[in-house]
Amino acid sequence: MNQIPDIIRTIPLNYYLYFSTALFAIGVIGVLTRRNAIVIFMCVELMLNAVNLLLTAIASYRADSSGQVFVFFIMAVAAAEVCVGLAIIVMTYRNTRSTDVQLLNELKW
Amino acid sequence: MQEIVMPSINQDMALLCLLIPLLPLLGFIVNGLGNRKIAKGLVGLIGCATVLASFLISIYLFLDFKANGSQPYTVDYYNWISAGTLHIGFSFLIDQLTLLMLLMVTGIGFLIHLYSAGYMSHDEGFGKFFSFLNLFMFSMLLLVMGSNYVMMFVGWEGVGLCSYLLIGFWNKNTNYNNAAKKAFIMNRIGDLGFLLGIFLIFITFGSVSYPQVFAEASKMTGLDTPVMIAITMFLFIGAMGKSAQIPLFTWLPDAMAGPTPVSALIHAATMVTAGIYMVIRSNVLFILAPTTLDVIAIIGAATALLAATIGLVQNDIKKVLAYSTVSQLGYMFLALGVMAFSSSMFHVLTHAFFKALLFLGAGSVIHAMSNEQDMRRMGGLRKVLPITFITFLIGTLAISGIPPFAGFFSKDELLAHVFEHNKVLWGIGVLASFMTAFYMFRALFLTFFGKFRGTAEQKHHLHESPAVMTIPLIVLAILATVGGFLGIPEVFGAKHVLGEYLAPLYTYARGINPAAFETGAISHELEFILMAVSVGVAVLAIIIAYFMYIKKEEVPAEEGAHLAPVHNLLYNKYYIDELYNTLIVRPVMWLSHTVYRFVDVVLVDGLVNGVGKFVILSGRTLRYAQSGAISFYLLVMVCSIALILFLNFFIG
Questions:
Q1: Does A31 touch chain B (CB under 8 A)?
Q2: CA of A30: which chain B residue's CA is closest?
Q3: DSSP SS3 for B521
Q4: Alpha helices, DSSP H only, in B73-148?
Q5: Residue B502 CB: number of other CB atoms within 10 A?
Q6: How many degrees, rounded to 5, is the angle at CA B285 between CA B329 and CA B136?
Q7: Whole-number pLDDT of residue A51
C-alpha cells in the first residue's frame, strides 16, 4: 500500500505550486472584492489552506516532517481565529443587522 | 618667557592689599542684599565705613611703601586664567602710580560717600544707591590695583556697569534711562578698542602682565613700528570712551542725569580718569609710538577747546561742570600727548579735588533749591548758603588757574610742557583756559550773586546743607587750596614732590626716549611769562564775566528765545548729537529694521513656520486616507505587501 507521501509525489511539485498560488490569489481577490464578512472570512481560510497545501507538498518532497507539523499549528491557530472572528461577526450583525463590511466605516477622521 | 622677578611680600601685607577692594565689595553685598531691610542709618554707616577702612589701609600701604625704599612689588593670589601660553594671575601691582590712585580713589570716594549719606537721605533707593557706590569702589580699585591688562579690563567694565546703573538710578524717568544707555553704548565702542589692544599686546609680547610687557617693550628697537602704533591706538580708543574724548564725549554731559554725588565721584574724579591712568601705566608702549602721541595731543586739545566753548552757554549748572570735565580731560590728554605724564597725573589729582568739590557744591545748591538745576532760576544764594558759596568759590578759583589754588600749578605745568612741544597746541590750551575761567565764573555769578530768581516756594525752602554734606565740601576745599603744593615748579626753588615721586615709573620709557624726560628745556624767564599769560587770561575772563553778569545783571535767555547764530550753535552743542543721530543711529536703526523685516520675519520665521505648516498640511491631506472602509485598508495592506515582496525580489 502506498504511503501518503508517495501518493503526493505522483504529481510534480510545480503543479502544487501553481495550484496553491492560484488558490491564494483567489483568496486575496475574494477578500478585496467581497462585501460580506462571512465570505471574506472564507477567503481568508482559502488563503491559509493554499499555504497549508504548499507546506505539505514541499514537506513530502523533501521528506521532512516539520512542514507537516507547521500545518497542524496553522490549523489550530486558524480554528481559534475563526472562533474570535465569527464572534465579532455575530456582534456586528446584532448591531447593524447586516454582515456588509462597507457599513463598518465609523473609525475615520 | 622669562619671569620678571619682583620682590614678594609677606602674608599679612597680601591680606591687607586684598582687603582694600574686598571691603567695598562686602559693603555692596550687605547693602545690596539687605536693600530695603537695613535701616538707612546703618546702610550709610556700612557704605562709608568700608570705604574709610580702604582709605586707611591705603595710607598704611603708602607709608609702608615709603619706609621700605619705594620698591614696587606684586602680590600674587592665585592663577586666575591659564590656557596654553596664556597665564593670567589674580595679582596686584603696588607701585607709585597705584598708591597715588588708591589714595585718590578711596579718599575722595569716602568724602563723596559721606556726602551722599546726606544728599540721598530723602531717597527711597538709599540702600540701592549705596550698594552701587560700593560696587563702583570695588571695580575702580580692581582697575587701579590689577597687575595685568585683563584685571584692568575687568575693573574697566565694572566701573562702566556702575556708571550705567547710577546714571539710570532714577529709572522711572525714560530720559535718564536713555542717558544711561548712551553712556553704556558709547563706552562699549571704546572698550572694543581696549580689548583689541589687549589681544594685540598678548600676541606681540606673549603676556598681559605689566612688568613682563613693559620689560619686553623696552627691548624693542625703532620707534613707530606698525604694531606699536596699532596697540597704542587701540588702547587710546579705549581711553577715549572712558575719558570722554572726541568723538566719544557726548555721553558724559548726559550722564548728569544721575544723582549729583555720582557725577562728582564717577563722572569727574575717578572713572573718567581711568583712561589717563591707563596711558600713564602704559607709558613705555606710548613712548614707542610718537605718531599715536601726536594724535592724542591733537584730540586732547580739540576736546579741551570744543567742550569749553559749549560750556560757555549752558544753563544747567551740572551741564556746565560736565562740559568743564570733558574739557579738563582734554587737557590731561594734551599733556599725555606731549609725554608730560607726571603733569597729566598732577592735573588728574588736582582736578579730582576741585571738580569733586564743584559738583558737590552744585549738589548742595540743587539740594537747597529743591532739585532745581537751571541757573536762570537761581541767584543771590551766597547769603543763604555761605559754606557752599565759599567752597564753590575756592573750586572755581582753582579750576580757573588762579594762584595759589591747586589748578594753577597743575594747569600751568601742563601748559608749559605743551609750549615746549608745540606752540599751536599751547595757544589752543590757553584759549580753552580763558573760556574755563569765564564759564566757571559765569556759573558762580549766576548762582550766588544778584537777585533770587526762583519761585517764592523755593525761596522759602532755601537752607544750608547739613554738616554731613558740608564737611566733605570743606575738606575738598582745603585739598583744592593746598593740593597744588605737591608740584611747585622749580622756578620757585622748591622741589616737585609729585614729579620726583612718580619718576621711577618711567625708567623704561626714559631709556627709550631720554629727551622727553629732561627738565628745564625752557628758561625761567619764559616760564614766568607763561605763568603770567595763563593767570592774565584767567583774570581777564573773570573781569568780563563780572561785567556781564554782575554789573549788567545779564540772565541767559529763556528757552525758545531768539539767539545769535553762534550762540545757538554752541547752545545746541554743535548739533553733534543730532549729527551722530543722522550719521550713525538712524542708519543702524534702519539696517536693524530692514534685517528684522527680511531676514528675521521672512527667512527665519518663514522657515520655522513653513516646517510647521507643511506638517499640518500633510496631516490634513493624509487623514482622508483614514476612510474607515475596511476593504480599502485591506487593499492598501495587500498592495504594500506586494510592493515589499517586489522590492525584495529586485533589490535583495
A1: yes
A2: B631
A3: coil
A4: 96-119, 126-145
A5: 21
A6: 45
A7: 94
Q: Say whether B631 and A109 touch across the interface (CB within 8 A).
A: no
Task: Kindly determine whether residue A108 and residue B634, on different chains, have CB atoms separated by under 8 Å.
Answer: no
Place B633 in a pLDDT band, splitting at 50, 70 and 90: confident
Q: How many of the other CB atoms lie within 10 Å of CB of B71?
A: 12
Q: Judge whether B450 and B383 are in contact, CB under 8 Å.
A: no
Chain B residues close to A109, C-beta within 8 Å: 623-624, 626
pLDDT at B183 over 90: yes
Task: Report residue B4's pLDDT band, with 50, 70 and 90 as the boundaries.
Answer: low
R_g of chain B computed on alpha carbons:
30
Residue B329 near residue B292, CB atoms below 8 Å: no
Confidence check: pLDDT of B285 > 70: yes
H-run or E-run covering B576: helix B576-580
| Cα nearest neighbour of A33 on chain B | B631
Q: Is pLDDT above 50 for B1?
A: no
Cβ contacts of B481 within 8 Å, gap of 6 or more: B394, B398, B404, B405, B406
Residues with Cβ within 8 Å of B614's Cβ and at least 6 positions away in sequence, in order, are none
Q: Do B628 and A106 touch (CB under 8 A)?
A: yes
Helices B226-242, B149-167: axis angle to 10 degrees equals 30
Residues B628, A105 contacting (CB under 8 angstroms)? yes
Supply the mean pLDDT for chain B: 90
Averaged over B528-542, what is the pLDDT?
92
Query: Could you tell me if B316 and B283 are in contact, meaning their C-beta atoms sit under 8 angstroms apart?
Result: no
Q: Say if residues B437 and B541 touch (Cβ distance below 8 Å).
A: yes
Any idea what DSSP says for residue B209? B
A17 has a chain B CB within 8 A of its CB: no
**Contact A101/B at CB under 8 A:** yes
Instruction: Tell me which H or E stretch contains B86.
Output: strand B86-94
Sorting pLDDT into bands at 50, 70 and 90, what band is A109?
low
Cell numbers that stand for B110 in this block: 569716602
Please name which of B100, B118, B107 lies closest in space to residue B52, comparing C-alpha atoms.
Answer: B107
d(CA B6, CA B95) in angstroms, rounded, equals 11
User: Which cell numbers hold the place of B493?
Assistant: 626753588
| Closest CA relative to residue B304, chosen from B267, B322, B336, B330 | B330
How buried is B215 (Cβ within 10 angstroms: 0-12 exposed, 13-18 middle, 19+ buried)? Answer: middle
Longest dimension (CA), chain B: 118
Taking an 8 Å cut-off on Cβ atoms, the answer to whether A105 and B635 are in contact is no
**B631 to A35: CB separation less than 8 angstroms, yes or no:** yes
Cα separation, B591 vs B433, whole angstroms: 42
Most confidently modeled range among B52-61, B486-495, B555-564: B52-61
Q: Of the candidates A101, A108, A109, which has its C-beta nearest B631's C-beta?
A: A101
Cell numbers representing residue B291 in the block: 605718531
Which residues are CB-contacts of B85 (< 8 A; sequence separation ≥ 6)? B1, B206
Residues in chain A: 109
3-state secondary structure of B118: helix
Scored b (16 or more CB within 10 A) or e, B311-337 reads bbbbbbbbbbbbbbbbbbbbbbbbbbb
Enter the ipTM.
0.77
**pTM, entire model:** 0.80
Yes or no: say if B72 and B9 are a contact pair by the CB < 8 Å rule: no
Distance, in Å, from the CA atom of B316 to the CA atom of B634, rounded to the nearest integer, reads 89
Distance (Å, rounded) from C-alpha B321 to C-alpha B389? 16
**Torsion angle, CA of B311/B313/B316/B322, rounded to 10 degrees?**
-10
Is the pLDDT at B391 greater than 90, yes or no?
yes
Which residue of A lies nearest to B624 if distances are taken between CA atoms?
A109
| Residue B412 CB burial class (10 angstroms; 0-12, 13-18, ≥19) | buried
